């Protein structure tokens, strides 16, 4: 994985998308990292806490290089869980809240959004490595960004099958039951949600994919 580092960008994801429009597919896989971003975007088009010192990352992979059994609708779960596992291996107690949020206790410390551009999957990641405000929590360990990125990308390169990642997330899904998610703009409890094998949720008879 080639990684481009910047002190400041408006958005790592916007920069990466523009770069991919100008260059051929052969540049992939490619990652963009910034110490600070001034116009980052999170889930549901919310701005992401853009304080200097936190992790702002976007990376692009060829769709053809993804695990053969991974449905694109559940890519955010897959790559968020790999990041969660990487942080756990470094000593963090972080867990994944469906479909793409990283939590410690009841506080959000990070998240991911995924989009498809042509034949590329783009993943945008934000993680609070340090406590910067009163809204979001910070990671419970001290870690160098380059070490975290190195371990994370090594896990991605293993191309572990979706069914193996999902089986572990399924066992941990009970940690999600006291939380909510947003479906069509509405806040919905995960208390009665049933996790399906393809990563979707069955809530009140409705099958819902992450879609982000």
Structure description:
The protein is α+β, with helices and mostly antiparallel strands. The chain has a single domain (2-162), classed as Bira Bifunctional Protein, Domain 2 (BirA Bifunctional Protein, domain 2, 2-Layer Sandwich), CATH 3.30.930.10. Helices cover 24% and strands 31% of the residues. It contains 4 helices and 12 strands. It has helices at 12-22, 75-89, 145-157, 162-172; strands at residues 2-9, 30-37, 55-62, 95-97, 101-104, 107-117, 120-127, 180-183, 186-189, 194-195, 201-203, 206-208. The chain has a 7-stranded mixed β-sheet with strand order 1-2-3-7-6-5-4, sandwiched between helices. The protein has a 3-stranded antiparallel β-sheet with strand order 10-11-12, with no helix packed on it. Strands 8-9 form a two-stranded antiparallel ribbon. Strand 1, helix 1 (12-22) and strand 2 (30-37) form a beta-alpha-beta unit. It is globular, with a radius of gyration of 16 Å.
Q: CATH-wise, what's the superfamily? A: Bira Bifunctional Protein, Domain 2
Going by CATH, the architecture would be 2-Layer Sandwich
Q: How much strand content do the residues show?
A: 25-35%
Please give the largest β-sheet.
7 strands, mixed
CATH topology heading: BirA Bifunctional Protein, domain 2
Structural class: alpha+beta
Kindly provide the radius of gyration, computed on alpha-carbon positions and rounded to a whole number of angstroms. Answer: 16 Å
- Tally of individual helices: 4
Q: Write down the secondary-structure element order.
A: EHEEHEEEEHHEEEEE
The CATH class turns out to be Alpha Beta
Shape: globular
**Total tally of structural domains:** 1
Note the gap between the termini: 23 Å
Residue stretches low in confidence (pLDDT < 50, at least 5 long) are none
Give the rounded overall mean pLDDT: 90
Kindly state the percentage of residues in helix.
10-25%
Strand order of the largest sheet: 1-2-3-7-6-5-4
Quick one: how many beta strands? 12
């Amino acid at each position: 994985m080639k990684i481009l580092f910047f002190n400041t960008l408006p958005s790592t994801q916007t920069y990466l998308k523009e770069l991919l429009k100008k260059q051929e597919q052969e540049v992939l896989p490619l990652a963009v990292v910034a110490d600070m971003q001034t116009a980052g975007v999170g889930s549901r088009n919310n701005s992401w806490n853009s304080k200097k010192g936190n992790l702002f990352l976007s990376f692009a992979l060829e769709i053809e290089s993804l695990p053969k059994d991974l449905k694109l609708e559940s890519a955010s779960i897959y790559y968020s869980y790999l990041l969660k596992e990487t942080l756990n291996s470094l000593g963090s107690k972080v867990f994944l809240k469906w479909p793409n949020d990283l939590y410690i206790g009841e506080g959000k410390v990070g998240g991911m959004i995924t989009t498809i551009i042509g034949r590329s999957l783009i993943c945008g990641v934000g993680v609070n490595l340090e406590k910067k405000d009163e809204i979001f929590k910070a990671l419970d360990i001290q870690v160098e960004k380059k070490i975290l990125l190195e371990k994370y990308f090594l896990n991605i390169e293993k191309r572990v099958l979706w069914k193996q990642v999902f089986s572990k997330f399924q066992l941990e899904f009970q940690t999600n039951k006291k939380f909510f998610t947003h479906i069509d703009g509405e806040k919905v409890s995960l208390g009665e949600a049933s996790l399906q094998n393809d990563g979707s949720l069955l809530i009140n008879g409705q099958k819902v994919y992450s879609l982000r």
